[in-house]
């Protein structure tokens, strides 16, 4: 069987740590109760698993366990965070590197005439960023959304600085940490983040099927609107959702297996010294950058090393090159990566996008060298 | 006389948090699902009656709202 070289960790990390697999299969084998529904041991064990995961998330990113609201993925988390807190007439600022998971809910609300929004230029430098935000802010501005780290290029917004600005001006600060959670340090308290949204299956190494929002302390008083209503084992006689977190925003059965796996994924991340995974990814990224930049016809977008590498090849559409790499067992993602705003900012070919290589904890130097070698081979064969 | 009381909390999340806090303070408790609550389903902590006041104080100090205490 052909060996797989997995370089699509920004879509979902793979492989998953053995402890994650063992936890998920163990629960399936030993009993999978519904958390928060019953008083029997399987239901209570499930509730305990869910609670432990809330605690680990709160410890890793700051906040209280009961303000960690589980969703099915990061898109659901972002939709919930945006739609539960914005009100009619509000204005929102989103950055020019936002994923469609932010752009689309905001644009949809705007199309319905409920809110308005503008796109601000993202800067990595804090002072430049604040200058730009000050130019864009309106009297009706209620929220600033910042994608912490682009899913397209190694580009990071200065969230600590934006957070301080939001706190000083009373704005809600939403951070999309889809690409940074587990890789870059994030603290909701010191960065004044009111809404932190992340998936469990990328840099936190859980299985697909769980994401979360950490609601800031302000939402204990400014109660968020419900987004999905239904059963959750709390106050069943009331036709309305409870008025406290997390139960107000969690209707229906929680994805226990994904949450249990995420809990072990967080343990996996915590087993490394801070910054070590990113350091390794930067080293592998630099290696690929150096090799690819020696190949005729390759264009690399952004030269900062990190977990991502974005490039295109002369004479190839991004999808064609990704398909050729797949023939060699190399898994990368081509196209626009659901981030047309970011592709426009970084100048990839209009409509086609580029090939994205995304590294993870299990990638090796051999993976990086294989990628460069195969790209060169493909280009040489077809030129 | 029953030696256990039930401290009713707002949800299973608060019950799990409360159980951990009480344990850290040397009080053993069990998460239970009490019946006949005014608002329908809910969860609580079953604690020895001799620790009732101490347990309630710990929970309140840690912002875990007590819905009610059922003494048998």
Task: Quickly count the helices of chain A.
Answer: 11
Q: Going across the biggest sheet of chain A, name each strand in turn.
A: 2-8-7-6-5-3-4
Q: How much beta of chain B, percentage-wise?
A: 25-35%
The biggest beta sheet of chain B reads:
4 strands, antiparallel
Instruction: Classify the secondary structure makeup of chain B into a structural class.
Output: alpha+beta
Whole-angstrom Rg of chain B: 11 Å
Order of helices and strands of chain A: EHHEHEHEHEHEEEHHEEHEEHEH
Mean model confidence by pLDDT of chain A = 96
End-to-end separation of chain A in angstroms reads: 29 Å
Description:
The complex is a heterodimer of chains A (383) and B (72). Chain A has 11 helices and 13 strands. The mean pLDDT of chain A is 96. Chain A is 39% helix and 15% strand. A 7-stranded mixed β-sheet of chain A has the order 2-8-7-6-5-3-4, sandwiched between helices. With 72 residues, chain B is an alpha+beta fold. Chain B has helices spanning 12-24, 52-61, and strands spanning 4-9, 29-32, 43-48, 66-71. The model of chain B has no long low-confidence stretch (mean pLDDT 92). Classes of the chains: A alpha/beta (383), B alpha+beta (72).
Give the key terms:
heterodimer; A: 383 residues; alpha/beta; 4-stranded antiparallel sheet; 11 helices; 39% helix; globular; B: 72 residues; alpha+beta; 2 helices; 31% strand
């Amino acid at each position: 069987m052909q060996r797989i070289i997995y370089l699509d960790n920004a879509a979902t990390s793979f492989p998953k740590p053995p402890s994650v697999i063992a936890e998920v299969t163990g629960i399936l084998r030993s009993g999978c109760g519904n958390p928060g529904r019953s008083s029997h041991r399987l239901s209570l064990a499930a509730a305990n698993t869910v609670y432990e995961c809330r605690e680990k998330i709160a410890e890793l990113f700051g906040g209280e366990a009961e303000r960690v609201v589980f969703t099915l993925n990061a898109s659901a988390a972002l939709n919930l965070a945006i739609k539960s807190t914005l009100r009619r007439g509000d204005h929102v600022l989103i950055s020019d590197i936002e994923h469609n998971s932010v752009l689309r809910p905001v644009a949809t609300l705007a199309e319905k005439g409920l809110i308005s929004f503008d796109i601000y230029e993202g800067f990595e430098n804090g002072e430049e960023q604040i200058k730009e935000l000050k130019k864009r802010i309106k009297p009706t501005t209620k929220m600033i959304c910042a994608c912490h780290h682009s899913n397209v290029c190694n580009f990071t917004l200065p969230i600590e600085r934006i957070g301080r600005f939001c706190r000083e001006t009373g704005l809600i600060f939403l951070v999309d940490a889809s690409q940074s959670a587990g890789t870059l340090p994030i603290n909701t308290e010191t960065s004044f983040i009111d809404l932190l949204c992340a998936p469990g299956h990328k840099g936190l190494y859980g299985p697909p099927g769980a994401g979360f929002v950490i609601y800031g302390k302000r939402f204990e008083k400014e109660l968020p609107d419900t987004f999905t209503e239904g059963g959750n084992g709390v106050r069943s006689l009331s036709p309305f959702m409870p008025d406290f977190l997390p139960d107000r925003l969690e209707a229906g059965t929680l994805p226990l297996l994904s949450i249990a796996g995420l809990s072990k994924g967080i343990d996996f991340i915590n087993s490394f010294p801070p910054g070590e995974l990113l350091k390794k990814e930067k080293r592998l990224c630099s290696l690929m950058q150096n090799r690819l930049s020696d190949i005729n016809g390759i264009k690399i977008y952004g030269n900062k090393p990190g977990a991502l590498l974005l490039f295109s090849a002369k004479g190839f559409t991004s999808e064609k090159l990704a398909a050729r790499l797949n023939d060699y067992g190399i898994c990368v993602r081509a196209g626009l990566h659901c981030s047309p705003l970011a592709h426009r900012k970084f100048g990839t070919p209009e409509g086609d996008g580029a090939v994205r290589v995304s590294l993870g904890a299990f990638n090796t130097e051999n993976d990086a060298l294989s990628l460069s070698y195969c790209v060169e081979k493909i280009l040489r064969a077809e030129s | 006389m029953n030696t256990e009381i039930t401290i009713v909390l707002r949800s299973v999340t608060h019950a799990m948090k409360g159980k951990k806090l009480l344990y850290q303070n040397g009080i053993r408790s069990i998460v239970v699902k009490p019946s006949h609550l005014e608002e329908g389903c809910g969860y609580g902590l079953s604690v020895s009656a001799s620790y009732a006041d101490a347990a309630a104080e710990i929970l309140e100090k840690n912002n875990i709202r007590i819905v009610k205490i059922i003494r048998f």
